[in-house]
Amino acid sequence: MTVEIHDGNRWQPVCTLDDLQPGRGVAVLLAAADDGNDAQVALFLDRAGALHAVDNRDPFSGAYVLSRGLLGSRGDRPTLASPMYKQVFDLTDGRCLDEDTAPDGSPAVLRRWPVRTTAAHTAPGTDPRPARGTDPQTDSPTVPQTAPSTAPTIREDQA
Predict the structure, then answer these.
(1) Could you report the per-residue pLDDT of 111-123, keeping only the tens digit for each?
(2) What is the DSSP string of 29-45?
(3) Vertex 96: Cα angle to 94 and 100 (nearest 5)
(4) I need a labelling partner for 3 at 20 to 30 A (CA). Which of 9, 108, 122, 150 fits?
């Protein structure tokens, strides 16, 4: 299965589901959007199998390190702890649970990116039926699709 992130205009394939390890994050560089800027996204597969994508930039340190953060929970809410100063962010809405504002006075909220899986690798700019993840229009879970993946998986150790 291919993991895709919606950049605000289209779904961009970023990796295969097999490339992700439950409980660990990866940094993803999304190609330039209409504003001409690339975006760094922290992508996670939690141990329950849910995908999460948030900005990789820690609003407290300014460092692009959140993909190295620790997944956890507070109550029934999935969370991400920054590896820098250990602020904890709610993955369902992106807000910091420890402080309301970052040191620069801006709201301490991470941008959340819609993320899903598709049954096979797709060309950029296409919009196949989602298998699992969130719909960028409603930000609600999509219905799982049972079609097997036909996309080859190539790992670094196989290249």
Answers:
(1) 999 999 998 655 4
(2) EEPP-TTS--EEEEEEE
(3) 120
(4) 108
